[in-house]
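Narrative of accomplishments. A recurring question from our advisory board has been how the design workflow behaves on a single, concrete structure rather than in aggregate. To address it, we present the structure tokens for one chain from the evaluation set, followed by the sequence designed for it. No filtering or post-editing was applied between the two.
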């Protein structure tokens, strides 16, 4: 291995600002705190989130209740007229859409909508397909398979307590 030493670039290391060390230092007397006031006192200053007496943000915003945000599903939307790049008899799936550069590989779920016309026989396997799109694909002689199945929770009957 080579015998070399790493060195910080010029200007990367600076002298620390030593405050309150007399008038010759340039940071003497008030130690860069200005004259008087809450911030000049020892232990002075306001707590994090303090907005000068105005109702702070963390108290203005509701922090109760349920938010569906972490569970929301977002779909990448495609239309029937986007499928013109496929040849009759092709399989349309998430993988083939990525290969044709219609969607990014990072897209999780894809939904097909019914704008445009279709004259090719395609077999479609996607997460969601609108009724209009399904109708147009089947009219052109293709098939549709929807991969997404909604989870239906069944409520259990409460047991009678005697």
């Amino acid at each position: 291995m080579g015998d070399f030493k790493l060195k910080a670039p010029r200007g990367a290391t600076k002298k620390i600002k030593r405050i309150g060390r007399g008038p010759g230092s340039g940071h003497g007397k008030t130690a860069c705190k200005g004259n008087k006031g809450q911030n000049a006192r020892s232990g002075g200053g306001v707590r994090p989130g303090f907005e000068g007496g105005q109702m702070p943000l963390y108290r203005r915003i509701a922090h109760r209740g349920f938010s569906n945000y972490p569970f929301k599903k977002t779909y990448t939307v495609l239309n029937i007229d986007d499928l013109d790049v496929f040849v009759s008899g092709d399989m349309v799936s998430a993988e083939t859409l990525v290969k044709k550069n219609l969607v990014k590989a990072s897209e999780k779920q894809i939904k097909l909508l019914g704008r445009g016309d279709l004259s090719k026989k395609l077999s479609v396997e996607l997460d969601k397909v609108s009724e209009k799109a399904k109708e147009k694909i089947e009219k052109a002689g293709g098939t549709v398979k929807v991969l997404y199945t909604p989870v239906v929770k069944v409520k259990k009957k409460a047991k009678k307590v005697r």
